[in-house]
């Protein structure tokens, strides 16, 4: 059992957990993820490692309540335990001093972006961060991102804060104004797709973090396969980070919807998914 | 005494009923049936059957005990060589092993050795007469076992019996390996596997689940942390795909994913269990091994109207256990032999709608001695299906080999290990099971675990 030692509500549907998992914390690196299973009947779901504390032996995850399992998770409180928690999985981010780097985060994608940005900053890069959300109250980790960036730009879809529009509008401006050596983009699939399309004409290497459906996270099932260039890769072991310019985005976005109908059924039948009184 | 040429039939659920549930198909011999079957054995002096068993179970001796109705004695005899008889009795490909060499097989059907083994193992589980294990004095040596499949569990149990302190690291949230995530409930009830695992825990073995070696710790980390030896039994869990166009459409599964969702995550009880699985009306399973039969039969139970086995070679060449093929046929699985897909087609929104197949004919025998399938030009045809399961084989998972410097590998990624001891090219590191042989059988993996335990014990005794 893995105990939740701290819980924070970052936005109405976005929550942060610090989970006691000393062995995972000892090895975790930016860009990696964990898979958890809440209870005996639960599904295994992947969440990115948003931070880790080796001394305290904790892993921080930040998740958005989108379906049954994330809602059930959101109902847990400090002191509660999660049945299974396995990691660190996936390849760590390749941190180097590239020069000037733009880090683009959308929605809950800002959570995994944060430790990567911090590590890039520590490696000596000049960091321009662009973060966005649907509206101001859904924007997370602004202060944290600011602290590890040389410049921070913000966009909201509804204009309630910062630039009104998409992160890609700001990204285009940045790319027009200066030379950029590398780009990281993490967020909803559609955002990462548009970022990749935006940067392609500028020929700036663009790394995205794929979040396909997963089961085991060890390369055993192939549920997480993505087409990269002409090759099929397993995101859980070969990724989750890939070259955004090589991803077959239409395929990737479709594969995420495989269980759309079942997800609705699980929620409808669920005892928690909304029914526990906290939603 | 005249020979009885036919095996005592195995009682089983009616095919029409059983495709609606996940309960065990073969329900097992009654005492009367077991006695009748045991009576067929003529107690050959030369014990030919025994040579066919990879762990050399003393078959004539245990059958003799059954004849005397000394079931306790029978199970003891088996357990001298085989820790997991309830499992082996169910899943061993007996027709290629012990029963293949049975004298009776020359004139009629061989003795149902597997069925008898299962009978006494179940008898012991049901009557609860399981001895509390004796835990020997500690040798003070520590061994790490990576992977809790039949190879790792067998090695762990034997090493614990020799007095070593054993920790098993397992990537998934339960121990058991393929026995838990791959082989379906209707063929091997998970409760049986769980009981064996509980017994191994009672021997003092510490099983740590959720521990992916290569990620959380490497093999070198384990050696540095004070483990005196490491056994690698990580299996052959890497699913192969065909690399044909359309393979990533929604509705194309690896057999591993299809079976893991169903068995390990219990998707057949969705939405009580939260993991979903999507099965269409017309399912094609590519391949004809045990894995393929399991997937095709699972598809029927999950509601498919048509379930096909699509296989490049002919019926005689299907690698699955005979019993599984028969069961699949009884249940209505349809066989499209000498056929293989060359392209998968999808709908506008990315779901499988069918596949183009090509027909084959058999040519000259290849290296494996089997007649090589040759595609027939111009024989392409369209097969309408909405779910495709790839069951064309599995390779070794590279996670451990790629993070363990000093391990010599074969070109296909399996670990080079000495036959009979499992010794690898790395000091103090042993390996066995599918990670060494490539996808094989439960009993071979167990045999490798046993041999490695002996070799590790010797290594530890000689080590200062
Ligand atoms: C490597 C990796 C890292 C991830 N990191 C995070 C993270 O740090 N924080 C976070 O909030 N989420 C993260 N995700 C996504 C998270 O795993 C899913 O949101 C979660 O599995 C949804 O489960 P559910 O039962 O709540 O929702 P479901 O009922 O399964 O789905 C509800 C909705 O979410 C969509 N959905 C399902 N799976 C995913 C997915 N993998 N990615 C995006 N949308 C999905 C569905 O299409 C559906 O619309 C990550 C995914 C991967 C693969
Ligand atoms: C669907 C199916 C049906 C089968 N049917 C039969 C049958 O009827 N009869 C028969 O004899 N054989 C059958 N087999 C084959 C048989 O199951 C295998 O040969 C046998 O299980 C191999 O045992 P193993 O211990 O080597 O590996 P596995 O059973 O594969 O176990 C390996 C274990 O190691 C774990 N692992 C992997 N990597 C790591 C890591 N990095 N860190 C920690 N743990 C790790 C895995 O999660 C797994 O639990 C079948 C196989 C399948 C897939
Ligand atoms: S272990 Fe398998 S091969 Fe050996 S006697 Fe039993 S069923 Fe036959
Ligand atoms: S070969 Fe057959 S008949 Fe002879 S001892 Fe073995 S099981 Fe009995
Ligand atoms: S999640 Fe199963 S192979 Fe990646």
Q: Which class of the largest domain in chain A in CATH terms? A: Alpha Beta
Straight-line distance between termini of chain A: 25 Å
- Let me know the largest β-sheet of chain A: 7 strands, mixed
Secondary structure tally: strands of chain A: 17
Number of helices of chain A: 9
Number of domains of chain A: 2
Query: Could you report the average pLDDT of chain B, rounded to the nearest whole number?
Result: 92
Distance between the terminal alpha carbons of chain B, to the nearest Å? Answer: 60 Å
Mean pLDDT of chain A: 90
Let me know the CATH homologous superfamily of the largest domain in chain A.
Answer: Nucleotide-binding domain of ferredoxin-NADP reductase (FNR) module
Write the H/E string of chain A, N to C. Answer: EEHEEEEHEEEHEHEEHEHEEEHEHH
Ranges of chain A where pLDDT stays below 50 over 5 or more residues in a row are: 271-279
Quickly list its features.
heterodimer, A: 279 residues, alpha/beta, Elongation Factor Tu (Ef-tu), domain 3, Rossmann fold, 2 domains, seven-stranded mixed sheet, five-stranded antiparallel sheet, 9 helices, 17 strands, 27% helix, 31% strand, B: 464 residues, five-stranded parallel sheet, 32% helix, globular, binds flavin-adenine dinucleotide, binds iron/sulfur cluster, binds FE2/S2 (inorganic) cluster
What is the gist of this entry?
Chain A has helices spanning 22-27, 68-74, 110-122, 142-147, 167-177, 189-199, 235-238, 249-255, 260-269, and strands spanning 2-11, 14-20, 33-37, 45-48, 51-53, 58-64, 81-82, 84-89, 100-106, 126-133, 151-156, 163-164, 182-186, 206-209, 225-228, 231-234, 241-243. Chain A has nine helices and 17 strands.
